[in-house]
Write a structure and sequence with these properties.
Order of helices and strands: HHHHHEEEEEEEEEE
Distance between the termini: 38 Å
Number of helices: 5
Strand content: 25-35%
Radius of gyration: 17 Å
Number of strands: 10
Shape: elongated
Length: 199
């Protein structure tokens, strides 16, 4: 398990060694200054994707960034430590996965309110994968030029090197899980690009 305070000190030292301000690293990494500052203070445990972005900003591999920081092979992320992201329009994401050095995997639980279109997201690098499972409601999942309608209990896999979108066109909230194996960060880091969310 990675101690957030130890990770924070390491990030601060690496940034200082390169003569980078918080603002400069935040800009190159595509991470907010407040998030980066909280990570350096040991107040937040970043996701694998955020750590990968910071490593890119420091011109390091993720494994190099995390070298010698892992103290236990079993990593527990308590419910209180999960990252909750409230998006515009009322949709909500919870990052369930612990940070595992060298593993670019995320498992996210998302709730889309009725009539919410979360927008189109850019492709990951070739070799990336996404698995989607619907817990409740109906999800309209776009992959490239195709659209798939998934009801509660349905699941789907797609190579994540294509633009993809998520929408709830029904009257009830839609809850679904995304498990993603990411080869590297998206070029446009984490935001819908083709069209803005409509909720």
């Amino acid at each position: 398990m990675i101690d957030p305070e130890v990770l924070g000190r390491r990030l601060h030292e690496l940034r200082a060694d390169r003569g980078l301000s918080l603002t400069a690293l935040a800009g190159t990494a595509g991470v907010s200054v407040s998030m980066l500052s909280a990570i350096e203070r040991g107040e937040k445990t970043p996701t694998v994707v955020v750590l990968s972005r910071i490593a890119d900003g420091l011109r390091l591999s993720l494994s190099r960034l995390l070298a010698d920081l892992e103290t236990d092979r079993v990593i527990v992320r308590r419910a209180a430590e999960q990252e909750h992201v409230a998006e515009p329009g009322g949709w909500h994401r919870t990052v369930l996965t612990p940070v595992v050095p060298g593993v670019n995997f995320e498992w996210i639980r998302t709730t889309l309110p009725p009539h919410c279109d979360a927008g189109t997201f850019p492709a990951y690098a070739p070799g990336s994968h996404e698995f989607v499972a619907v817990e409740s409601g109906t999800l309209h999942l776009g992959v490239g030029d195709a659209e798939y309608v998934l009801d509660a209990g349905d699941s789907l896999y797609f190579p994540a090197d294509a633009p993809h979108s998520y929408a709830n066109r029904g009257e009830d909230p839609c809850v679904y899980h995304v498990a993603a194996l990411i080869m590297r960060s998206r070029e446009n880091r984490g935001s819908p690009v083709s069209r803005a969310p409509r909720c």
